[in-house]
Design a protein that fits this description.
By secondary structure, this protein is of the alpha/beta class. The protein has two domains: 155 residues, Rossmann fold (3-Layer(aba) Sandwich), CATH 3.40.50.300; 64 residues, no CATH class. Helices cover 33% and strands 25% of the residues. The chain is built from ten helices and ten strands. β1 and β2 form a beta hairpin. The protein is globular, with a radius of gyration of 18 Å.
């Protein structure tokens, strides 16, 4: 469905992605892992056209995406939830969701569907975005992407800074999304969360793919986890990834 072949990307003269190749098939969740600065976010930004693919190719459902403007890539079915969430703080929850709603009856996601899997948002639909907790803002960002009726989701660290209880809610929601057949490319530094959600994983190191394997294979490979993720034996099972971060609810 989504295929990157030998993708190279730059920030100015700085060569950031060095021949990245990966694929996401229909209906699966794929984790993109690695330490800070490995090139994970740049990979998503390159897929979305915010960073230019200097060499190589990016194709989605057989259509080339590299060279297209970002809004055209979104129209091809890519739903992008950035790390910063970027909700509209001065709009209500309901307004945030409906501002980009797919029109003409073509969308598979309606407000009722969203509120079914995000009951907290249904209860707070009249609240302004700026009055939501960090966890609720993350849920709103994911829900807003779904309202655009994507055929694939790109998620950049959906659990960042959230309390474990809220992370578990996010995991449950994303499992429901996966069960509806929506493929996901997931950046996640919390290895425990990634292992719960993803079918397969790629690990980036210094802009290159250095590992690929299933969740079971990665969970069993202590050498890879220690070398490329800084995770030691037993840590992933407890939901730990790299350095602890301040958490919010």
């Amino acid at each position: 469905m989504l295929e990157l072949k030998n993708v190279h990307a730059y920030y100015g003269d700085s060569h950031v992605l060095h021949g990245v190749s990966l694929c996401v098939e229909d209906g699966e969740v794929v984790g993109l892992l690695g330490r800070n600065g490995a090139g994970k976010t740049t990979t998503l930004l390159t897929i979305m056209g915010y960073v230019r693919c200097r060499d190589g190719s990016i194709a989605y459902k057989g259509q080339r995406l590299d060279g297209l403007q970002s809004y055209l890539i979104a129209r091809c079915g890519m739903g992008f939830v950035p790390q910063e969430r970027r909700i509209f703080p001065s709009l209500t929850v309901r307004e945030n969701l409906t501002v980009g709603e797919r029109r003409a009856g073509r969308g598979r996601w309606r407000l009722k569907d969203i509120f079914d899997i995000f009951p907290n948002l249904g209860e707070r639909q009249k609240n302004l975005g700026c009055h939501l907790s960090g966890g609720e803002q993350q849920m709103l960002a994911i829900a807003r992407a779904l309202m655009l009726d994507p055929s694939m989701l790109l998620l950049d660290e959906p659990s960042e800074g959230l309390a474990p209880m809220i992370v578990e809610k996010i995991v449950q929601v994303l499992r429901e999304v996966k069960n509806k057949g929506l493929p996901i490319l997931l950046i996640e530094q919390n290895l425990g969360t990634a292992l719960k959600l993803a079918d397969r994983h790629y690990i980036l190191s210094k802009g290159e793919i250095c590992y690929r394997g299933t969740s079971a294979e990665l969970e069993a490979d202590e050498t890879v986890k220690r070398q490329y993720l800084g995770v030691y034996a037993g840590e992933a099972a407890g939901g730990q990834g790299q350095a602890p971060r301040q958490t919010t609810v």
